[in-house]
Structure formats: C-alpha cells, structure tokens
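Appendix B. Chain record.
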Amino acid sequence: MHKRAYQWTLFGLLLCFVVVILGAYTRLVHAGLGCPDWPGCYGFLSVPQSDSALQTAQMRFPDDPVEAFKAWAEMIHRYAAGLLGLVILGLALFSLRQRRQPGYPVALSLGLLGLVICQALFGMWTVTLKLWPQVVTAHLLGGFTTLALLLLLSLRLSGRLPALPASPRTARLRNLARITLLVVIVQIMLGGWTSTNYAAVACIDLPTCHGEWWPEMDFATGFNLLHQPVGPNYLGGMLEGPGRTAIHFTHRLGALVTTLMVLLLAWQLWRARHVLLAGLVMLMLALQVTLGATNVLLHLPLAVAVAHNGVAALLLLSVVGINYRLRAPARARLHMQTSRRRRTLAGSL
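Structure tokens predicted for this chain:
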C-alpha cells in the first residue's frame, strides 16, 4: 500500500464531499452569482469589505451590488475547490514518480487532474454564462464524478482487494450492480437538471402533483437543451410552470426506478450474504427517499435540501464501492500476474 498517497487521497475524498455540499448550499441560497466575476470577487481576491473596496466594486460592476453573505458563500466554495485542485495536482505529480511501480493507478490519478481542470473551466462558465442550466448541471455532475473517482483511487491505493468467489451468482450481481450504478447516475443528472432549473418546488404535494396523477407538463420545453439560449441571467430560472413541472415529475419517476433498482440490488446482496453492503446501500436509499419527500412536503427547507444533495453523493459512493468490490477478484488477479511477470523479468536480468 502506498500509505502517504492513500492518506492524501482520503483527505481529498473528504474535501471533495465538502466541496459538493458547499456547491449545493451556494445554489440553494441563490449565491451562484454572489461574485459576478471569476476567479476573484469584484476584482479582489476576497469579498470587498472596506468602504474604499466597496466603492471600487460598485464602480467595476454597477449592476451587481455587493451582497456580502452571497459573496462569501461563493468564495468559500471557490477556496475549498481550489484547495481540492491542489491536492489532486499533488496526487497526479506523485503518480508520475511512481509510474514504474507495478499496479500504481497513474492513469486514474492523471484523469482526476484533467477532470479538475475541466471543473475549473465549468466553474468559470457558471459565472460568465450567468448560471446557464446546461453548464451548471455539467459542473454539478463533474463534482460527483470527481468524488467517485477519488473513492476508486483510495480503494486502489489501500492495497486491500477483497476477493469474492467466482460463481454465476457473483456474475449476476456484477451485472446488476453496473445497471444500478447507471440508474443512479441518470437520477443524479435529473436531480441536477431539476435544481438548476429551479423546479424542485414545481409540485408541492405527494404522491400526486397539483392534485393530479398526470398534471399538465411540457416535456419539449423542459428537456430541450437548445431552448434556453446563452445570455439571460438564469438566477431563479426562466422556464414556465409546465416545463418545470415536467422536469420535477420526471425526477420523481426516476426516483421510483432508482428505488426499485437499489432495493433489488440490496436484496441480491443480502441473498449472497453480503449483509453489510446490503445494509449500507439500503440506509442511503432510505435517507434519500425520506429527504426527497420532506423537500416536497415542506417546500424545500435549506438544511433538508443540502442534506438531499449530500446523501445523493453517499448513495453514489455506496454503489461505486459495491461495483468495485464485485470487480475486485479479476483486478487482483491481474495485479498479481503483472507483479509476477515483473519479478520474473527482473530475476532474469
């Protein structure tokens, strides 16, 4: 096990989770444009506070008065994301030094660095394109992807590859886990699209929507990526009621499919005597469903909405971890074969 890299990866994983939570909080308090420029804030490295700094900020951005609370929410998120970028840069540089070590995940480390660079660009475009939903959703998905890849990197570096017995049941479980992961990812995408289009409270009753099982909806508008042009300020959203209702209702249907798939996966894990894995994913599912329903019935309370984003990340990590565990034997055999070949070659020389 590469202990130092493993410890830094765990720190990066925790920090990335914090960044995801801060991003959700920033969106939910409508602070995505708390600073109208990037990467600074009104041309400063921090939020302007003195009288002279406030006057300068007003001169630079006369149409965007300083709101200290929103500006600080945005800048704290940027500071945390910047620190995460430095950690991942360090992991990538360390991987280059270890590139001749058998089995070291160099490609994964460098891939994370490339993803973080893309995330920085999306962070800039989030501001310069004034919360254009397509960019904000992509930025959100990038954060979740970074989190998942950091988990995979930590598992690879841990040196612990628990082997599961090869059997038809394990193969079926592996396929089910992959499908469940795909469903969870699609549901997270729907959740991001719901959030960035401010459609979370488009329906405020359960299990119906506006008192109907199939309310008036405009799917063509809600899911037409070309319908929303670049240019307007999307703070608060631009879609009309039927478009937002279509997005919200689709997210509900996705939640139903996700629940069924996760329940099926948990049941199969339990039957295969992987009780802890089954219990973990069931706990995450139960929390997520409860938080989602509370969001609707209580009209999106801030703490519950932030927790809903956080548990979505934990559910994703749980399913990613299950997929990794089910794939571990093949990967372990590959690493053992690679190491054996290298030792044989070294001995012959």
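Further analysis of this model is presented in Appendix C.
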